[in-house]
Write a structure and sequence with these properties.
Helix content is 34%, strand content 12%. The protein contains eleven helices and eight strands. Strands 1-2-3-4-5-6-7-8 form an eight-stranded parallel sheet. Helix 1 runs parallel beside helix 10 and helix 3 runs parallel beside helix 4. The radius of gyration is 18 Å and the shape is globular.
Length: 281
């Protein structure tokens, strides 16, 4: 009995193999769509796992062109929220962001990968960070732990803006689990506007699902931030981003596999995310 917890997947990338209709920013890049990841395929996975809503981030290989995610979200606003990519170095960026929000976007991701290579606290991007705050957007910060000094500067500069630490700074990129660390992430927990996305377990683990060797990392982050600033995400499409587990297992990880209290589960599976983005009711 009781009220069913709203489950919200906070990390998906929708994509199409139709690169003529939706061209890649760099047609020769190795990072490109390798599987069909349309919104309806995501919805089928969500329905199978009883996920209510999802947040999708325009995939990096589209560069600053958000049209695929924006087009796919039309008519699906009740369950799909879109985060966009805007060139942090562009003088037009803040206006473009405002236009995207007017067209239905409800979040933004800022990163120094792929098509922008300056530090995240470079003054050239300050107008974009400021505009995101003025628009009341939650900002997804896709940064490695080595960039967390710059991230901290932004957390201090915009205390009213909510920032998500994507993948907890890639705790595991190419490291063996012995050397994985969440220490730099835990350091930022003292900033109340910092939130943690617990999407790193598969890549951090040297084991198969449910990745028991890295549950301690999730525990340290949850204890530092509190569950009401932590969230799960699937990394859909699985084939491309999380081949070691199925979509349903990404939910199961936090619904069952990791030792958590019921209250912690409720926050991480959806309670936190309800408050981070504007959802069409």
């Amino acid at each position: 009995g009781g009220v069913k917890t709203m489950i919200i997947d906070t990390h998906t990338h929708i994509m199409t193999l139709d690169t003529e209709g939706y061209p890649l920013a760099d047609p020769n890049a190795s990072y490109r769509p390798t599987t069909d990841g349309a919104a309806d395929l995501l919805k089928a996975e969500m329905d199978g796992a009883e996920v209510d809503r999802a947040f999708t981030i325009s995939a990096g290989f589209y560069g600053w062109d958000n049209s695929y995610a924006m087009h796919q979200s039309q008519g699906r606003e009740s369950w799909l929220g879109v985060g966009v990519l805007v060139d942090p170095a562009s003088a037009e960026g803040p206006v473009e962001l405002q236009d995207l929000v007017a067209a239905g976007a409800c979040g933004i991701r800022i990163q120094r990968h792929l098509f922008y290579h300056r530090d995240l606290d470079d003054p050239i991007s300050t107008p974009l960070w400021a505009k995101a705050g003025q628009l009341g957007l939650t900002v997804d910060v896709n940064a490695s732990q080595s960039e967390y000094g710059a991230v901290e500067n932004r957390l201090k500069e915009f205390p009213e803006t909510k920032f998500i630490l994507d993948h907890c700074g890639y705790v595991a990129d190419t490291l063996s689990p012995e050397t994985n660390t969440v220490a730099p992430v835990v350091e930022l927990a003292r900033y109340k506007n910092a939130y943690a996305k617990l999407t790193f377990l598969e890549s951090a683990s040297s084991e198969a699902f449910p990745f028991r060797d890295v549950h301690w990392m999730a525990r340290e982050v949850i204890d530092a931030f509190g569950p009401d600033r932590c969230m799960f995400g699937s990394n859909f499409p699985q084939k491309m981003y999380s081949p070691k587990m199925s979509y349903a297992q990404t939910v199961e990880l936090f619904a069952e596999a990791i030792e958590l209290s019921n209250e912690e589960r409720a926050w991480i599976l959806g309670g936190t995310a309800v408050r981070l983005w504007r959802w069409a009711e």
